[in-house]
Write a structure and sequence with these properties.
The structure is a homodimer. With about 160 residues, chain A is mainly α. The first copy, chain A, has 6 helices and 3 strands. In chain A, strands 2-3 form a two-stranded antiparallel sheet. In chain A, helix 1 (about 15-35) packs antiparallel against helix 4 (about 85-100) and helix 1 packs parallel to helix 6. The longest helix of chain A has 25 residues, at about 125-150. Chain A starts with 8 loop residues before the first strand and ends in a 12-residue tail after the last helix. In chain A, about 35% of the residues are buried. The model of chain A has no long low-confidence stretch (mean pLDDT about 95). The interface of A and B includes residues 12, 129 and 146 of A. Strand 1 (about 10) of chain A pairs antiparallel with strand 1 of chain B.
């Protein structure tokens, strides 16, 4: 990474992964809070059901870390899950995969600009941040679905 | 900041501020997308209207940067805005204030653990991240309100 002499570094790769995994634990609890049928069918304002949003997180997470790490951008290949338990199974497998793959991202790839999936030009860091922010954004929408269903969402501040 | 020899620094304070201000521009557009009455009155699932969420972002932003910077945690003192234009006026004033104050945060305060507002114990970085994540989370909920009102929210990926 090119740093100015005066640059104040505030986050390490390790801290970023920890932050993301904390959010992912909360997202997992949010998925799990939905009754099976509502997860796949309920929505508001013509938006997607939360299962589709959760699946979007999955098709982004490991493929983005692979792409940032290697420069090889491959779309997620697995078949789309059709049950909650299947989503959670893939989710848990990605948790392990992220813990293995993230620490192997070469340092220079965080600042290097690349074209993610041949479409989005950004630094590796910005692309990873986008995945995290997108997860927080849509999970917040899942909270509205849960509230509208009369279900208490998991506490936002709990990440363990 | 105490760093391991092998620590890979991925984000500078400058990049973190830029990231936040990008999100804040999007949040400003989200506030502005609401018709005046809906901003203060519309909600779903028994949740707060979006004006209350936007006000929460305001009472957190500058007070958190002040607290992380100085160790002096002061609640926001201004009177709660009651119109959209008033919210946006305070928002724009905070944008300038953040640009001035954020770069003055002493380096060691990002990693130092403090008790924000005498309540939440975390590093300066974690407290700032919490403010950003909280903004993304609730803004996502504002998107559901807008969709339910038949209003197209601003594109999530545009931050300029």
């Amino acid at each position: 990474m090119v740093t100015e002499t005066a640059a104040v570094n505030v986050m390490t790769a390790e801290a970023l992964l920890k932050h993301w995994q904390g959010h992912r634990r909360l997202t997992r609890r949010t998925i799990d809070a939905f009754p099976e049928d509502k997860l796949f069918q309920f929505s508001l304002g013509g938006m997607r059901p939360f299962a589709d949003m959760a699946w979007e997180f999955i098709v982004m997470a490991v493929p983005i870390v692979d792409g940032v790490s290697t420069g090889n951008w491959q779309e997620y290949k697995g078949a789309k899950a059709t049950t909650k338990s299947e989503i959670l199974r893939v989710w848990d497998a990605q948790t392990v995969e992220l813990d293995t793959k993230f620490p192997k991202i070469p340092q220079h790839r965080f600042s290097e600009v690349d074209k993610a999936f041949d479409k989005w030009e950004a630094s590796g860091l910005a692309t990873i941040q986008y995945a995290i922010d997108n997860e927080i954004h849509h999970r917040g929408q899942g909270y509205v679905y849960l509230r509208a269903l009369g279900i208490q969402p998991p506490p936002f501040w709990e990440r363990d």
